[in-house]
C-alpha cells in the first residue's frame, strides 16, 4: 500500500481537485492561484423587482413601501420580499465602499451570482473591480423563469 505523503516536494493545493487553470473575471482571465480569499456567492448589484409582490393587506403597505431601516430589519429577516427597497441593490457607489472594506481586510475575489434578468450589470461590475482592486467573477446564467428576458 502506498503512502499518500511520500512526495518529496509538496504541492500547493488550491481547492479540492483544482491545481491549475483560470477563471474569467469582468476584467479578463485570472489564474486560480491568484484568487486568494474569495466570497463565493454575493450579489453586488441586484434588481429583484420581478420577484417582489405588493402585499394585499392595507396594514402591510407601510412596510412594503418604506426604505430599509433598522426599525424593520426584524420583519425583513422573516420575509425579505415584504419590502420593495429590500429586493434591490442598485447603488454602485455603496457597493464599491462595502467591497473596499472587504479588500482592506484581505479579500481578493468576489463571485457575483447575479444573473441575466435580475440586474446583472457587466460595465458597473468592471468599474467596481477596477476601483476596488478586487477580482470579480460575474454570473452568466438565468435565474427563475419569471425573471428571464422576454
Keywords:
single chain, three-stranded parallel beta sheet, two-stranded antiparallel sheet, 4 helices, 23% helix, alpha/beta, 150 residues
In short:
This protein is an alpha/beta fold and 150 residues long. Helices cover 23% and strands 17% of the residues.
Can you describe what's shown?
- There is one protein chain.
- With 150 residues, the protein is α/β, with parallel strands linked by helices.
- The chain folds into 2 domains: 1-45 and 90-150, no CATH class; 51-89, no CATH class.
- A hairpin with a 2-residue loop joins strand 1 (22-25) and strand 2.
- It contains 4 helices and 7 strands.
- The N and C termini lie far apart (59 Å).
- It has helices spanning 61-65, 73-78, 92-104, 122-132, and strands spanning 22-25, 28-31, 38-42, 46-47, 88-89, 109-112, 135-138.
- The strands form 3 sheets. Strands 3-6-7 form a 3-stranded parallel sheet, covered by helices on one side. Strands 1-2 form a two-stranded antiparallel sheet.
The overall strand count is 7
| Overall mean confidence score, pLDDT | 89
How would you sum up the major sheet?
Answer: 3 strands, parallel
Termini Cα gap: 59 Å
Radius of gyration: 20 Å
Produce the secondary structure layout.
Layout: E1 22-25, E2 28-31, E3 38-42, E4 46-47, H1 61-65, H2 73-78, E5 88-89, H3 92-104, E6 109-112, H4 122-132, E7 135-138
Parallel strand pairs: 3-6, 6-7
Antiparallel strand pairs: 1-2, 4-5
Amino acid at each position: 500500500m502506498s503512502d499518500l505523503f511520500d512526495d518529496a516536494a509538496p504541492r500547493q493545493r488550491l481547492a479540492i481537485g483544482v491545481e491549475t487553470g483560470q477563471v474569467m473575471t469582468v476584467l479578463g482571465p485570472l489564474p486560480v492561484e491568484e484568487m486568494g480569499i474569495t466570497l463565493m456567492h454575493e450579489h453586488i448589484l441586484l434588481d429583484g423587482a420581478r420577484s417582489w409582490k405588493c402585499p394585499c393587506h392595507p396594514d402591510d403597505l407601510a412596510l412594503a413601501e418604506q426604505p430599509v431601516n433598522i426599525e424593520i430589519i426584524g420583519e425583513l429577516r422573516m420575509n425579505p420580499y415584504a419590502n420593495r427597497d429590500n429586493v434591490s441593490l442598485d447603488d454602485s457607489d455603496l457597493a464599491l465602499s462595502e467591497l473596499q472594506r472587504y479588500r482592506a481586510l484581505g479579500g481578493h475575489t468576489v463571485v457575483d451570482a447575479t444573473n441575466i434578468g435580475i440586474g446583472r450589470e457587466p460595465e458597473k461590475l468592471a468599474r467596481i473591480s477596477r476601483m476596488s482592486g478586487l477580482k470579480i467573477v460575474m454570473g452568466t446564467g438565468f435565474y427563475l423563469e419569471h425573471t428571464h428576458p422576454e
